[in-house]
């Protein structure tokens, strides 16, 4: 979203449930897979590798990030994937969070 203030504004509006028709048109102009584009967009090309995707759930977001982190660490000269777990006890419910990152 860096370098794209219009998209940043639209995503912030989405986050706060204040989308405008202009925001919806912007999102619809960037749909990855649709009836008009049934094969979708290859997010693994150099043009799209740093693209932002809006996910329907945090679970899907975390799964995609974990897969991408794993893929970025395949091969002999690539970084090692490290998975860390954190226990959040700052609220009544206890949450466990897995964080995937590459060791440089």
Explain how this protein is built.
This protein has 104 residues and is α+β, with helices and mostly antiparallel strands. The protein folds into two domains: 54 residues, no CATH class; 49 residues, no CATH class. 32% of the residues lie in helices and 17% in strands. It is built from three helices and two strands. The protein has a two-stranded antiparallel ribbon with strand order 1-2. The chain is extended, with a radius of gyration of 17 Å. The two termini are 24 Å apart.
Low-confidence runs of at least 5 consecutive residues = none
Q: In percent, how much strand structure appears in the residues?
A: 15-25%
Q: Which class do the helix and strand fractions yield?
A: alpha+beta
The domain tally reads 2
Strand elements, count: 2
Q: What is the first-to-last residue Cα distance? A: 24 Å
Summarize the structure.
The chain has 104 residues and is an alpha+beta fold. It has two domains: 1-54, no CATH class; 56-104, no CATH class.
Based on the model shown, name its key terms.
single chain; 104 residues; alpha+beta; 2 domains; two-stranded antiparallel ribbon; 3 helices
Task: Give the topology, please.
Blueprint: H1 5-15, H2 21-28, H3 58-71, E1 80-88, E2 95-103
Antiparallel strand pairs: 1-2
Helix pairs in contact: 1-2
